[in-house]
Design a protein that fits this description.
Two copies of one chain form a homodimer. Chain A has 270 residues and is α+β, with helices and mostly antiparallel strands. Chain A folds into two domains: 4-125, MutM-like, N-terminal (N-terminal domain of MutM-like DNA repair proteins), CATH 3.20.190.10; 144-264, Helicase, Ruva Protein, domain 3, CATH 1.10.8.50. Chain A has helices at residues 4-18, 38-45, 127-130, 144-151, 158-163, 175-182, 196-215, and strands spanning 23-28, 49-56, 59-65, 68-73, 78-83, 95-99, 104-109, 114-119, 253-257, 260-264. Chain B binds a DNA duplex (14 and 14 nucleotides) through loops.
Chain lengths: 270, 270
DNA sequence: AGTTGCAACAGGGA
DNA sequence: CTCCCTGTTGCAAC
């Protein structure tokens, strides 16, 4: 379940490692992860060159030259691995991209992942990515004014709003836990009830939390492009059921909020 | 709050009284009840002849010659009145239709009503009427097979389903009360839980209830085309809070079901 | 009491 | 909660 920090690091590593390489052998093991037929996928990708790689939310945008974009979403528990020339490929993968220099990239996901391909002209109509919200790591895009705009008029609870990729792109059920804790917000708090200070804190904490995790290379139990784990492991309350709250010592509770699990300090988060 | 019985009677009276008359002076006091601009409304209606009038759900369809349909919805607490030649018009009305013989028709609604006009070719695209469901007074249309079809796959409660005009057209929050009581159904009963006997009873009771009310000229507190009240007043449980259930004597309760009020016998309706 | 559209929410499926 | 789609429900608007 990579979220924005892991995806952003993968995209950065891909940009550095793959830029300029020419795709020779795209192979798709699992056709259902594609948005087009296998033959069309190969035709769209083969012999194209990697021009740029960037992250938006949980999606990796791979710009190919000429005029094509590869859109990758690792779903839950997915991995993206780089393989030097001559290295053995993993036993299981859903898609493999071979490059003209003998290196390769494999994508594997235990649940649902996407390997989508669109012509450059059609990128704006690709539903899953066209509707993505603010990018917290992009200071041009992630401004307080934009943040308040997306929140305006919303009546529901704050946690589902944070998880909705149309609002802010890249937060999943892992990072959202400490974001709520650090803002002292209960997951069920209704958006209209948030005061100005809470909104400002939330805005700031989202960026701080994701930037910090990104700088640490992402979660310790996720792998980067070279199979190396991240170094972020010190959750404050996330996944620490029964352990003491780092602020007040109260035991962290695991509760159900809507259809997701939440880890909260029942004292600090109201 | 006219529902199908009142609307059906109005349509019948209009058909008998107005067929063949030529519209000369359409006047709209309140433009917001129109679906087109006032000038276009007049152009579409003026000098046309009343060809036919029929009811569908809570809507009155007035076919004009040539090639136009007037669609009237009285909303909540609306009235439609016929005025003989020389008679004084009411003080307040939202729309007035004058005929070449000196007679007139006025429409007044205390809340939201619609006076829509469509070209014959566009009738099928008029959203509010195109999506109307079964017509309980039309035995060709209101068949048990069609009834079950509309119910198939629905998971929600029976009362909202009955009130949704897309399923059955013409039931409002007044007539629905006794329909549910006579079928012995609690308003919150889930559709998948209804057994075959209950479905058959409901199908039959809907028609019986609406036919009976129509034959009685509609509700005693609603007026017909000539300002005369209907003769239907003997609700079984509807609007009889605290009065005894006609079957078991238990006091009728007024409860909230979703966003509407329901009058039920807590003993008979499960 | 009427109708629509939207937002929130739940469930199923890929 | 990875994402979509559909249906249901509640709410505000006219």
């Amino acid at each position: 379940m990579p979220e924005l920090p892991e995806i952003a690091n993968l995209a950065g590593q891909m940009a550095a490692e793959l830029a300029g390489k020419r795709l020779t052998g795209p192979e798709v093991v699992q056709e259902k992860c594609l948005n087009v037929a296998g033959a069309e996928f190969r035709a769209l990708v083969e012999d194209k060159t990697i021009a740029a790689v960037r992250a938006r939310g949980k999606w990796i945008f791979v710009s190919l030259h000429p005029a094509t974009t590869l859109l990758l979403n690792l779903g839950m528990g997915g991995e993206l691995l780089y393989h030097p020339a001559g290295a053995a490929l993993p036993e299981k993968f859903q898609a493999r991209f071979a490059f003209s220099d003998g290196t390769a990239l494999t994508a594997a996901f235990s649940w649902f992942g996407y390997v989508h391909t669109v012509r450059a002209a059609d990128l704006a109509t690709h539903k899953m990515t066209a509707s993505l919200g603010l990018s917290p790591l992009d200071v041009q895009d992630y401004t307080y004014a934009n943040f308040l705009d997306r929140m305006r008029g919303r009546k529901g609870a704050i946690k589902p709003w944070l998880l909705d990729q149309k609002n802010i792109a890249g937060i999943g059920n892992v990072y959202v836990q400490d974001i709520l804790f650090r803002t002292r917000l209960h997951p069920d708090r209704k958006i209209p009830e948030l005061d100005e200070t809470e909104r400002q804190t939330l805005f700031r904490v989202i960026r701080e939390n994701l930037v910090q995790a990104t700088e640490l290379g992402g979660l310790v139990y996720e792998k980067d492009l070279y199979g190396q784990p991240g170094r972020f492991k010190d959750f404050l309350v996330g996944y620490r059921e029964g352990k003491p709250c780092p602020v007040c010592g109260t035991a962290v509770e695991k509760i159900r909020t809507g259809s997701t699990a939440s880890y909260i300090c029942p004292m600090c988060q109201q």
